[in-house]
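A quick aside before the break. I want you to see a complete sequence-to-structure record at least once, exactly as it would be stored in a machine-readable document. Don't worry about memorizing anything.
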Amino acid sequence: MEKIRNLSLKKTMVLYTILSLIVTFFLSAFVARISGQIQEEIWWKYVEHGEYYQAMNDRGENFEVTVPRPSQSQMSRIDWHISETCDFLQTYGALLFSFAGCGIAVSLFYRKKLKRPIQELEMASQMIAEEDLDFHMAYENEDEMGTLCREFEKMRGQLEENNRRLWQMIEDERVLRAAIAHDIRSPLAIMQGYQEMLLEFVPEDMLDQEKMMEMLRGGMLQIERMNHFIDGMRKMTKLEERELNCSVVDIRQLISQIKTLAEVMEEKSEKDFTVTAVGESETLVADVEIIMEVADNLLSNAFRYASQKVGLKLTVTAQDLKMSIGDDGTGFQKNTDTVTQAFYHENPQDDLKHFGMGMYISRIYCERHGGKLLIKNAADGGAEVEAVFKNYVSEEQQQK
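That is the input. The structure line, written in tokens, reads:
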């Protein structure tokens, strides 16, 4: 039964047609036989029985004597109509039953193979037109309509994902506008206060040189802060245009680059740093610039919040590269989904130097590289961030 349900439309239609022809053939033969018997019984009523039996005796065993057909005037009106009906069924019965069988076959074919998927497709089209994507195509037969419904379900899923991304972009843009207004207004307000004080007190010689220098240094810090903010905005703009530039990466060389990157942070923070590598291969195919950018962002966060030590572990497989960075700090204090949003600050005191872009940029880069960014608090305390990058070695081999 399962095989019949999953037959293609063409094979199902042929099967229904053959079955209908077989059924109509036997039904036509049966009706023709019954009609002939009924007709003979009617004619028998108008035959001289003695003459009939005499004719049978005269003809012998090798001859068949048929019941003669009475004329219309000899038969009653009802018998004549019944006899004519039997003639009609014997002559045209096969044709009528063939048409009826084909009609029933087409009706069954539509009801079994077309009605339900067409209804689901109509319902889905209407819901998509109403921008309601919260539904699923339930028709799962392995035929052409099932394939069409599955493709339609894929399209619905893609539309739902695009819609989700669109709303996420709108929400990110709203957050971005609010963050820009906040992060620009704060340094501008401070600089405005400094300028007003200078304009008010300098002409009257009410500020000593040390106080003026302090205010000027404060203004320079705010200018530096705005420059950092502009650099962060520039990076966000480039994220949308960043294309992957994959090449063969030597793991030992990658570790050396990461160590060089971490040495400066290690020296400034006076915290210990260790790096280990495990895996099935000594090389991978990836965009090393993206990996180093993510490493820079994650290591900066780790050194900033670590208590005494930071550790990095690289795991290389045929499918991906996993870069796990952990520290012995206090860990993440809020929902880990919030940490990767743009302009997120774990510590408000960091606002002067950090704009909450590192984790956001790292997440975008990981996703752009076919991977993801996983964030959690370690079991023994501290934060643990794992950046996953797809290893494009299989695509590289196929191109060769």
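Two observations worth writing down. Strands lie at 247-250, 272-279, 283-286, 309-316, 320-327, 372-377, 383-390. The CA atoms of residues 267 and 273 lie 10 Å apart. We'll return to this after the break.
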